[in-house]
Amino acid sequence: MLYPAPLATTAAALHNGTLNMSSYIDELCDRIDQMNPLLEALLPEEDRRARLQNDAQALQARYPDPVSRPPLYGIPIGVKDTFRVDGFSTQAGSQLPPNLFAGTEAECVSLLRAAGALILGKTATTEFAYFEPGPTRNPHHLEHTPGGSSSGSVAAVAAGLCPLSLGTQVIGSTIRPAAYCGIFGFKPTYGRIPTSGLIRCADSVEHVGYFTQDLPGIELVASLLCSNWRSAPSDRQPILGVPDGPYLAQASEEALVAFERQLSLLQQGGYSIKRIAALQDIEEINRRHTRMVFAEMAQVHAAWFAQYESLYRPRTAAALREGQSVGDEEWAQAREGRITLRSSLEEQMAQTGIDMWVSPATTEPAPEGLHSTGSPIMNLPWTYTGMPAITLPAGHAANGLPLGLQCVSATMTDEYLLQWVAPIADLLASQFKRAG
Predict the structure, then answer these.
(1) The CATH number, out of the four listed (3.40.50.300, 3.40.50.2000, 2.40.37.10, 3.90.1300.10), of the domain defined by the range 7-225
(2) pLDDT for the residue numbered 433
(3) Within this chain, domains 7-225 and 240-280+337-435 share the same CATH topology
């Protein structure tokens, strides 16, 4: 259930008029009518096609001259149902009354609208961006999860229902599902994309992320959404660091074997790779991050949970109850731990001369069944520290499902990260296509 939908080339064709916007929308809506009942990536909407065509006509009337058209002119985007979007209700994958979540449109959504994007619709999410799964299926194999919590957003892009979608990440909800579904997922440095207008999960590690099928599309959107984005040309090959030790050992044998194959391919391509003992206390890092997330979830949901506890699903309710037990001192220490760990990792990078950490994006390929969205622990330390991370498609597992390579650079080096990974993505693509 896959269809090519590269963002950058589609945006260029719409911008210069070689792709007719009305016909393009009809094509997407036909695909949605055929595939979404099976995938359940987009939330249902009556008369989606008519609304989109009306929005497209208004956009065309506003920008008759191609020269004046904004960069995402006519691009339909999926928006995770934790973002407020004018004209759409927000329920955050829950059974709570949607009026509780009404408010001003998310700033990043407004930025994309200003860049010419059209709202394709809301995408399915796990309950309140935590672990209770939504109904969405992996387009590579319908009996497997697409990952969470940005499940609908990733499946919509991977299946070609839209070329761009918004997600979030507080543990691994952008990087992990992108790997499971074989596309690019980018989580910038903490704070570089505004989170206002979002139904928050955990403020201290709340990241806006997004998905595309193409790396040029990732770069295009970064220039529009990330604060103070700048041109940062780099013509040198980055030095790669492998965080050896208990962190890496969290991945399955199959994921580690695939990772070694990826490293071998990169070495053959001329990349210097250093194995560095890092994240030795990963169990404590995992515990601190998780307890902090629970505490902040409990703060966000305090009034709602007090009134509507019976409407919360079991895993979400359990997380909120545990969060209520986290004291102020433990919470403050966990928040301080983000800065300490980031400083430690970036000091290691400086001392050893590495530019990027590389690791498996997930512990394994997408698990079978829809009862779980898979483990995010390979993504957790990079989210905890707020460092920019990206998933690159990187081959297939024995069962044919995609695998991803996770690349991470120092905070506020997002521009370099996206340039450094471009030739790596090209190298991996040959393996990815052969395996597929």
Answers:
(1) 3.90.1300.10
(2) 62
(3) yes
Amino acid 430: pLDDT: 79
Residue ranges in the chain whose pLDDT is less than 50: 434-436
Q: Which residues pair with 274 in a beta bridge?
A: 241
pLDDT of residue 1: 76
User: Which CATH superfamily includes the segment(s) 240-280+337-435?
Assistant: Amidase signature (AS) domain (3.90.1300.10)
Identify residue 297 by its one-letter amino acid code.
M
pLDDT given at position 132: 97
Kindly report the pTM of this predicted structure.
0.98
**pLDDT tens digits, one per residue of 119-132:** 999 999 999 999 99
Residues 6+ apart with CB under 8 A from 385: 338, 341, 342, 345, 411
For residues 72 and 53, what is the distance between their CA atoms, to the nearest angstrom? 16
**Domain residue ranges in the chain:** 7-225, 240-280+337-435, 284-329
Pairing of strands 184-187, 240-244: unpaired
Which residues does 391 contact at the CB level (< 8 Å), separation at least 6? Answer: 174, 175, 176, 178, 179, 183, 184, 185, 186, 361, 404, 405, 406
Indicate the residue type of 401: L
Q: Cα torsion for 62, 67, 69, 71, to the nearest 10°?
A: 180
